[in-house]
Amino acid sequence: xxxxxxxxxxxxxxxxxxxxxxxxxKKLYKQRYGEIYQRELKKNLEKDYSxxxxxxxxxxxxxxxxxxxxxxxxxxxKRFYKGIDISKVQTVNDLHLLPILDKETFRKNIEDIxxxxxxxxxxxxxxxxxxxxxxxxxxxxxxxxxxxxxxxFKFRLGIDPFKMKKATFSGKEYTNDANSKKKNIFWRHNSxxxxxxxxxxxxxxxxxxxxxxxxxxxxxxxxxxxVSAYYELAKxxxxxxxxxxxxxxAIFTTSETLLPFHREIIERVFKAKIYNQYASGEGACFITExxxxxxxxxxxxxxxxxxxxxxxDEMLITSFxxxxxxxxxxxxGDKITFLEGECTCGSSHPIVGNIEGRQVDFLFSTExxxxxxxxxxxxxxxxxxxxxxxxxxxxxxxxxxxxxxxxKDLYKVEDEKLIFKEMIYRFGKQTKVKIEYVDEIRxxxxxxxxxxKNLIKEQN
Length: 460
Fold this sequence. Notes:
The chain is of the alpha/beta class. 34% of the residues lie in helices and 24% in strands. The chain folds into two domains: 3-357, 3-Layer(aba) Sandwich (Rossmann fold), CATH 3.40.50; 360-454, 2-Layer Sandwich (GMP Synthetase, Chain A, domain 3). It contains 14 helices and 20 strands. The chain has a twelve-stranded mixed sheet with strand order 4-5-3-6-7-8-9-10-14-13-12-11. Strand 11 (302-309) and strand 12 form a beta hairpin. The protein is globular and about 70 Å long.
């Protein structure tokens, strides 16, 4: 949206903002749901993933085509692979012949990595969680293919993404105007896509009753968006004995790590199953959750290699839908574990046990090294209602500050002692822990909530 339209939007009444969003929705609809989308959706829905050898054969075929295209059209990859016989890379097992692409190299060389101009491309941005957001170009064909793959994933779960009413909590700023605050309307409506867009920036305890009231009136059949938004809503609803007057058919979480304690309370309060998914702003290949609640590494969308580090296996990503900004052996910074065995859903795609661990998902202990987000989340396990919100901030190796928003009627001195005890158990006695009681913990610029803020620059 250009500057003129942004100014017009910010000074318009809410009803006209809804019109503008719906018109913009029409533009996106044409970009996302063209002939390529329809063809790919049909193809994806007809796929049978039960034959592992067939899936491997397809993956290797797509890998060869993708690498050839990148070398042919990207100045960077021609230079990066100089002296390497690309014809020797015939299967996934041959990828080790190519160098690893780290994030800093990706960022510094992004102009030469592009294979297409910005004009006419679908532009995306990486999340920038490490302070290094990058502009990425997708071909329109890849953009439609990615959308078709995600929608096929939903159709297989019995969800029609076109017909069903959707509620979405994301990091877009729809409500940064005086009318929203004055009228307590923290959402906008996209009639083109049958979707209500809820602001995560205004999701405070004071405003949550307005959100719940509107959700009850709107009665969405599908919920999409940030894990933290649904977690905060679920906690509020349960602690205040509020009632939801609808039951969604499914919840699709994105952008933030879904931890077991998130899933447990969200599914209990909303009475609906969560289906997790993994991709990235850069265009990583997909990991999606099946009907039997297993995450699958989708072989037909790219390659995930395990890269051993002292902290566990990281992912190296090669994505078949990143032709505009090719990703080949890209060290994305996330950790992964796989499970043995076959899934009861019938898919032969490998089962993923766990995905975690960008740099911002760890804090450091001088005694014990990296402490992951999952282990920190367990610090408040067993104290379900007395802590409203929590954030761990680390500025240096010796000290961690815990910001706490507490329910003053329920929170006791014993709870503080328990937090210190749990932190010593995880970090050892050499790390100083300070608790800072606050009225509110602000969201990031992206609209996401950061449970961890690691402000130490890790030396790789």
